[in-house]
Amino acid sequence: MKSYADYTHHDAADFLRDADFQTWIRRPSPELDAWWRGLGRTHPHLKPELDHARLLALGLESTWTEFSETYVEETYERLVSERLVPGLGAPLGQVRPLPVRPWVRWVAAASVVLLLGLGGWGYAHFLTETTVQTAFGELRTVTLPDGSTVTLNANSRLRLPSRWAWRATREVWLDGEGYFGVTKQPSPDGGRKFTVHTTRLDVEVLGTRFNVYARPAKTAVLLDEGRVRLRDVATRRQVLMQPGQLVEYVTPTRQTLRRAAPAEARSVSAYRQNLLVFDEAPLDELARRFGEVYGIELIFNGKEFENQRFIGELPVNDLDKALLILAETFGCRVQREGQRVVLESIVVSR
User: Are residues 145 and 255 in the same domain?
Assistant: First the structure.
């Protein structure tokens, strides 16, 4: 090993070129960890560069290939003989071999540039979180690193941990609506749990299919198959669900658990077929869903709308068609001003 003094003027690129640093990344040990941590403590100005280099290199050791000078020489001669490296100002075929040492230096420099590029990609790919956001009227299916899938409804956000963190624990954070198909992970301890975090509750599963609705109005979970355990973030109370059950959290202290009727179950997760399904829905619920899915403020103007309910299906990805269906269903006039839509009853004079 070199002395600490040899690294006084190193930057991240210098560390990446250093053989001892590469050995530490490839084959870490308590002794090497202590030595490199000591370098950062002895020369505090080096710690940011050292940490940067380590982050760039993590997970990329398999991409490092050491070339002997003999291999470099032979490769260079082959390139020259095949006329793949024209000389400076010389006609092709009259190439004079360049000294090997500059070529070696060029290869080393190019390798460092490549490593830095791969390191940047590796940092983004392995060590950073990812957020998937759907727009109003947009449906998207996301495949997670373990093969699990999430179908996000419109105006929903899913936050994923880094791939590095995913190796230790499978957990995601949801704001909106998502239908999860979770793959079971075999392991000696019975499988790594999969956890969905929402503002109101955590959903823990081993391998199952379920829908999570996490909006300001309420939080709800519908279980299709398997088993899940819900943990209330505020009260810490737990609920173990069975297939076909629906749990709703409407207020900070109120929760309901019941078996969902087939029509209710379909209305919960029909968005996966690009549909909003309503079964005897009050108009305030219809207006709330319009705000959540389309980003539209829906206003019903007229006494004729009092106590009415809506039964029907609306397309998630086509607001104009959805408004046309409402107009035909209620026999009303639709007036749209930006993100505000007024449904006005048509009074027939006699």
Answer: yes
Whether the CB-CB separation of 12 and 56 falls below 8 Å is answered with yes
139: domain CATH number is: 2.60.120.1440
- CB contact at 8 A, 187 and 327: no
Those residues whose C-beta lies under 8 Å from the C-beta of residue 252, and which sit 6 or more positions away, are 234
Provide the strand spans (E) within 135-193.
140-143, 149-152, 157-160, 170-181
Task: Write the pLDDT tens digit of every residue in 137-184.
Answer: 999 999 998 889 999 999 999 999 887 778 778 899 999 999 999 988
Within 8 A by CB and 6+ apart from 171, the residues are 161, 194, 195, 196, 197
Given phi > 0 = left and psi -120 to 50 = alpha, else beta, which region is 226?
left
CA 34, 36, 42, 44 torsion-angle sign: negative
User: Two tokens at 6?
Assistant: 């040899």
Length of the chain: 350
Cα–Cα distance measured from residue 205 to residue 226, given in angstroms and rounded to the nearest whole number:
8
Residues near 183 by Cβ (< 8 Å), separated by ≥ 6? 146, 147, 148, 207
Residue 350 within a domain: no
Residue 331 lies in a domain: yes
Looking at the domain assignment, is residue 267 inside a domain? no
Q: Report the domain count for the chain.
A: 4
**Same-domain pairing of 245 and 306:** no
Does one domain contain both 161 and 182? yes
Q: What does DSSP say about strands 140-143 and 149-152: parallel, antiparallel, or unpaired? A: antiparallel
- pLDDT tens column, 99-126: 444 545 555 555 555 555 555 545 455 5
Angle between helices 283-294 and 319-330 (to 10 degrees): 170
Under 8 Å CB-to-CB from 227, ≥6 apart: which residues?
Answer: 205, 206, 208, 240, 241, 242, 243
Percentage of the residues of the chain whose pLDDT score is greater than 70 = 77
Q: Which tokens sit at 14?
A: 């210098």
Residue position matching structure tokens 């996966």: 272
Torsion of CA 43, 48, 52, 58, to 10 degrees: 60
Verify that 188 and 248 share a domain, yes or no. yes
Give me the residue label for tokens 């929903």.
Answer: 156
Write out the residue range of the structural domain in which residue 329 sits.
274-345
Three-state secondary structure call for residue 42: helix
